[in-house]
Design a protein that fits this description.
By secondary structure, the protein is α+β, with helices and mostly antiparallel strands. Helix content is 58%, strand content 10%. The protein is elongated. It comes from Cyprinus carpio (Common carp). Belongs to the major facilitator superfamily. Proton-dependent oligopeptide transporter (POT/PTR) (TC 2.A.17) family.
Length: 671
C-alpha cells in the first residue's frame, strides 16, 4: 500500500493543472524547431541568388529540390519510429542530425572563411556550395524525420480519460507552429539585412542562418531535458509496410495467374486473399480509392510552394517602402501565415455555413476544385504584376551581346568613335551606355576619380587618378561618404532608392581651391530605383491562401473521412508525396522550360492547374462517398463475428471516430 501511495503521488507530481508536465517541453520544442526551419527557409533562395551568385532558375531549382526532400523524409521517419527506434529515440537522433545541418548551413554563409583578398566575395565558391548542400541534406533528414513523430509523441502523454486536455494540447501545439513560422519569417530577413563580417561588411547571412541554428540546438536541449517525464511507447510496427507487402503480393499473384483459364476477381486486390486478411484487403481498397484522387494534386503544390522562390525573387524587383516601414522581399512571405490565421475561422464559421444555408452542395471535392482555381488566379495575378515590373526594367544585353560604358571626365564635350563607325557625343562629365546587369534587390554605386591625385573614400579602397571603384552594395536610405586627400576632406551624402545603380563622377577641381569638392560631384543614375510596389503582391497572396484553405485543409479532412482510422498514416504519406512531386515539377520547369519572360511561366503554371482542376472535377464527379466503418462492419460480419460483439465494436469505433474527427478539426483549423 505504501509503494502504491508513493507511485500515485509520483504520478500526481507529473501533472500540472490537469496536463502532463512533459507536454510543456514538447510544445517549446516544437516552437523552436518551427522557428528554426521556417527562418532558414525564408532567406534560403536569396542566399542562393546573392551569396552563391546563382541565377534565378538554378536558385529556384535547388530550393524546390530541398523542399521536395523535406516532404519525402517524413515517410522514412515514420517507418523508423514505428518499426525500429520508437518515437522518442527517433526524435532525439534525427534532431541531432537536424542541429548539425543547421550549424553546417550557418558556417557555409561566412564569406570571410575563403575571402583571402578581403574584397567581400568568397574566393572558393565550391567550398561554400558543398558545405551548404551538406547542411540542407541533413536539415531535410532531420525536419522531415521528426515531422510525423512529435505531434503523435505529444498525444502519447495523455491518458484515455483526458480527451479535453488532448484537444487543447493539439490547439496549442499547432498554434506554436504558426507562431514559430510567422515570427521567424519576420525576424530572419531583418537579421539578413544587417551588415557583418570580419574584414568586410556584407549582408549578414551568418546571423540569419545562425539564429535558426541556435533555436534548433535549444529545441533539442529542451526536449532532452524532459526525458524523465515522458511516456515512451515501444514500436508497434508500421502499417505502411504491411500495406506495401499486401499490394505487392496481390500484383505478383495476379501476374502468376494472368492466364484466361483462371477466373476473374471483382478487384485486383482480391488476388491477395490467399495470404492476407479480408479486412486488411478491404481497408487497402478504400485507401487506394482515395490515393487515386491524389494523382492530379501535385500541380496545386507546384504553384503553392513558389511563394518562397519565384514570388520572393519577384519581390526583389519591387519597392518595399511602406511609408515608415521598410519591408524586405523575403518578409513578404509572412502575408501567407497572417492570412491563414484570418481566413480559416472566417471560412469555417461564416463562408461554408452560409453556402450550406443557401442549399448549395459544396462537397469537399468541390471545395478542393475551387481551391485549385483560386491558386491558378493567384498566378494570373502574379503574371500581371510581372508585366508591370518588366516595363520598369532596362534592356540588358543577351548572351551574345556586350555593353560598353564610356565616361567623360574632361571639361568639354568629346566625340568618341567606336569601330567601325559608331559615334558617341558625350558631354562633360557625362556617361553613355551601361556595362552589365546587377541584382535588383540591392543598391550599387561606383565612384570615378577625375581628380589628379589618389582619394580615399569611406568603406572603399583608395582610388588612383582617372580610375574607378568597383560597384559597391549599399543599403537603402541616406548614406554618407567621406572623401579624403591628405589632410583635406569633404562629406558627400546621397539618398539611395531600392534596386538602383549609380555612378558618381568626382571632378578634377583641387581641394586647395575648392574645399567643397563634394558639392561638385556629378551623379549618373545607371538604373532607376524599383518603382512597382510590393503591395501589388498582396492580391496574389490572398488568392493563394484562399486556395490553400479550401484545398489543403479540406483535402486532409476528406481523406481521413474516406479511409479506416488505422490507415491515416498511409494517407498522410500519400499526401506528403503529392507535395514532393509538386516541388519536383517546379524544378523540372525551371531547368528545362527556360521561358524568355517570367510572366509567361506564371501563365503556363496557371493554365496547367486549370487543366488539372478540370480533370480532378471529372474524377470527383464519378467518386462515390463511402462510410469506412460500415464497410468494415460488413467484412467482420462475413468473417463470422457475433452480432453483439460486432455491434459493441462498431459503437466503440464510431465513438473513437467522433473523438478523432473533433480532434482532427482542431488540428486542421490550426494548420
Amino acid at each position: 500500500q505504501h509503494s502504491s501511495a508513493i507511485k500515485k503521488k509520483k504520478e500526481e507530481d507529473m501533472f500540472c493543472c490537469g496536463y502532463p508536465i512533459s507536454i510543456f517541453f514538447i510544445v517549446v520544442n516544437e516552437f523552436c524547431e518551427r522557428f528554426s526551419y521556417y527562418g532558414m527557409r525564408a532567406v534560403l533562395v536569396l542566399y542562393f541568388r546573392y551569396f552563391l551568385l546563382w541565377d534565378d532558375d538554378l536558385a529556384t531549382s535547388i530550393y524546390h529540390a530541398f523542399v521536395a526532400l523535406c516532404y519525402l523524409t517524413p515517410i522514412l521517419g515514420a517507418i523508423i519510429a514505428d518499426s525500429w527506434l520508437g518515437k522518442f529515440k527517433t526524435i532525439i537522433y534525427l534532431s541531432i542530425v537536424y542541429a548539425i545541418g543547421q550549424v553546417t548551413m550557418a558556417i557555409s554563409t561566412i564569406h570571410d572563411i575563403t575571402d583571402a583578398n578581403r574584397d567581400g566575395t568568397p574566393d572558393n565558391f565550391t567550398f561554400h556550395i558543398a558545405l551548404s548542400m551538406l547542411g540542407l541534406i541533413l536539415i531535410a533528414l532531420g525536419t522531415g524525420g521528426i515531422k510525423p513523430c512529435v505531434a503523435a509523441f505529444g498525444g502519447d502523454q495523455f491518458q484515455e480519460h483526458q480527451s479535453r486536455q488532448l484537444n487543447t494540447f493539439f490547439s496549442v501545439f499547432y498554434l506554436c507552429i504558426n507562431a514559430g513560422s510567422l515570427l521567424s519569417t519576420l525576424i530572419t530577413p531583418v537579421l539578413r539585412a544587417q551588415e557583418c563580417g570580419i574584414h568586410t561588411q556584407q549582408q549578414c547571412y551568418p546571423l540569419a542562418f545562425g539564429v535558426p541554428a541556435v533555436l534548433m540546438v535549444i529545441s533539442l536541449v529542451v526536449f532532452i531535458a524532459g526525458s524523465g517525464m515522458y511516456v515512451k511507447t515501444d514500436p508497434e510496427g508500421n502499417i505502411m509496410w504491411s500495406v506495401c507487402k499486401c499490394i505487392g503480393f496481390a500484383i505478383k499473384n495476379r501476374f502468376r495467374h494472368r492466364s484466361s483459364s483462371y477466373p476473374k476477381r471483382e478487384h485486383w486486390m482480391d488476388w491477395a486473399n490467399e495470404k492476407y486478411d479480408k479486412l486488411l484487403i478491404a481497408q487497402i481498397k478504400m485507401v487506394l480509392k482515395v490515393l487515386f484522387l491524389y494523382i492530379p494534386l501535385p500541380m496545386f503544390w507546384t504553384l503553392f510552394d513558389q511563394k518562397g522562390s519565384r514570388w520572393t525573387l519577384q519581390a526583389t524587383t519591387m519597392s518595399g517602402d511602406f511609408v515608415s516601414i521598410l519591408i524586405s522581399p523575403d518578409q513578404m512571405q509572412t502575408v501567407n501565415p497572417i492570412l491563414i490565421l484570418t481566413l480559416v475561422p472566417i471560412m469555417d464559421r461564416l463562408i461554408f455555413p452560409l453556402i450550406q444555408k443557401c442549399g448549395l452542395n459544396f462537397s469537399p471535392l468541390k471545395r478542393m476544385t475551387v481551391g485549385m482555381l483560386f491558386a491558378a488566379m493567384a498566378f494570373v495575378s502574379a503574371a500581371l504584376v510581372q508585366i508591370e515590373i518588366d516595363k520598369t526594367l532596362p534592356n540588358f544585353p543577351s548572351s551574345s551581346e556586350s555593353q560598353l560604358k564610356v565616361v567623360n571626365t574632361y571639361s568639354t564635350t568629346l566625340n568618341v568613335t567606336i569601330s567601325p563607325n559608331e559615334h558617341l557625343l558625350i558631354e562633360s562629365f557625362g556617361v553613355q551606355l551601361h556595362t552589365s546587369k546587377h541584382t535588383y534587390s540591392t543598391i550599387s554605386c561606383m565612384f570615378v576619380n577625375g581628380y589628379t591625385a589618389d582619394l580615399n573614400i569611406t568603406n572603399l579602397d583608395s582610388i588612383e587618378p582617372s580610375a574607378t571603384t568597383n560597384y559597391t552594395l549599399v543599403n537603402q536610405g541616406k548614406r554618407d561618404f567621406v572623401l579624403r586627400h591628405g589632410e583635406q576632406w569633404c562629406e558627400f551624402s546621397r539618398k539611395f532608392g531600392f534596386g538602383a545603380s549609380y555612378t558618381f563622377l568626382i571632378p578634377s577641381t583641387d581641394f586647395l581651391y575648392s574645399p567643397d569638392i563634394c558639392e561638385s560631384i556629378t551623379e549618373v543614375e545607371d538604373m532607376k530605383p524599383n518603382s512597382v510596389h510590393m503591395a501589388l503582391q498582396i492580391p496574389q497572396y490572398f488568392l493563394i491562401t484562399t486556395g490553400e484553405v479550401m484545398f489543403s485543409v479540406t483535402g486532409l479532412q476528406f481523406s481521413y473521412s474516406q479511409a479506416p482510422k488505422n490507415m491515416k498514416s498511409v494517407l498522410q504519406a500519400g499526401w506528403l508525396c503529392t507535395n514532393a512531386v509538386g516541388n519536383i515539377i517546379v524544378l523540372i520547369v525551371a531547368e528545362l522550360g527556360k521561358l524568355p519572360k517570367q510572366w509567361a511561366e506564371y501563365l503556363l503554371f496557371a493554365s496547367l492547374l486549370v487543366a488539372v482542376s478540370i480533370i480532378f472535377s471529372i474524377m470527383a464527379y464519378f467518386y462515390t462517398y463511402i462510410d469506412p466503418a460500415e464497410i468494415e462492419a460488413q467484412v467482420r460480419k462475413e468473417q463470422g463475428l457475433e452480432p453483439e460483439e460486432m455491434e459493441k465494436e462498431t459503437i466503440e469505433m464510431e465513438e473513437k471516430d467522433e473523438d478523432q474527427k473533433n480532434e482532427q478539426g482542431v488540428k486542421q483549423t490550426k494548420i
